[in-house]
Amino acid sequence: xxxxxxxxxxxxxxxxxxxxxxxxxxxxxxxxxxxxxxxxxxxxxxxxxxxxxxxxxxxxxxxxxxxxxxxxxxxxxxxxxxxxxxxxxxxxxxxxxxxxxxxxxxxxxxxxxxxxxxxxxxxxxxxxxxxxxxxxxxxxxxxxxxxx
Amino acid sequence: xxxxxxxxxxxxxxxxxxxxxxxxxxxxxxxxxxxxxxxxxxxxxxxxxxxxxxxxxxxxxxxxxxxxxxxxxxxxxxxxxxxxxxxxxxxxxxxxxxxxxxxxxxxxxxxxxxxxxxxxxxxxxxxxxxxxxxxxxxxxxxxxxxxx
DNA sequence: ATGTATGCAAAACATTTGCACCTGG
DNA sequence: CCAGGTGCAAATGTTTTGCATACAT
Lengths: 148, 148
Fold this sequence. Notes:
The structure is a homodimer. By secondary structure, chain A is of the alpha+beta class. The first copy, chain A, is built from five helices and six strands, in the order ααβααββββαβ. Helix content of chain A is 39%, strand content 22%. Chain A is globular. The termini of chain A are far apart. At the A-B interface, helix 5 and strand 6 of A face helix 5 and strand 6 of B. The structure holds a DNA duplex.
């Protein structure tokens, strides 16, 4: 019985290997869903896998090329990776606790297109990130400050 | 007679030194107005100044803290710096030639605020970058591809 | 003078790459 | 079996830092 991970990999034209399976599995079950390469590496080690950080980067780069994941450059140096679940969205990042919230706004998307057309650009991608503070005390995912 | 650069530095609470003056001057007269630290370093060397790259980074970081400049993280690894001329705007970046165009859209700004409020965030900053291709043949500022 | 800024070289990081070995189909 | 994938270590590219010297006030 082929796993769903295995099928996804084949569909993407990638050989089904253990590192790729494991990394995909981590991305699929990750909570929160935005992880750095090191986050993934650490989780692999924790679950006893002998996978190198270089492989994590290589696999993530392949996944990105295959549109399985997106790479975001939030503030703080490290890129974060997120599984493409088919629904485009933008991000709000809490600079106090690192919590990431997703949103999608039809009007913003439309205005972006209009603005690009006006400027004579063919847009292939965009990045919209709001930085701020979530006022909730139950803020999950507390990690080192992302703030500059 | 104090130069305008000198006054700006004093206003920002920074001691008036030659490296700071020169770097501020480069930022003020830069065309295009988005420069990497290396861009600035190269221009300093070209005009015969003996200023280290480390100093360029230190000064830019201080300028950023003093809100004299903004630091943007376009794709391609290097941060780019831009003088704060008092008018907030977002960016369209051509992935073929690196040309950067600025835009401001009231509706997008308004929607961002609304979205943030809905999510319970206090927004302190945001980053909106559109990536694409400018179709013009007279595309200025041709540099190494920024594309991934 | 005196505390801060600077230059240089070395460190710190995130990420990529070379290469010998291992593995999936 | 054999192309491609992986681990490790070393290289890369950007940005930061330690420290002795130089400078602004």
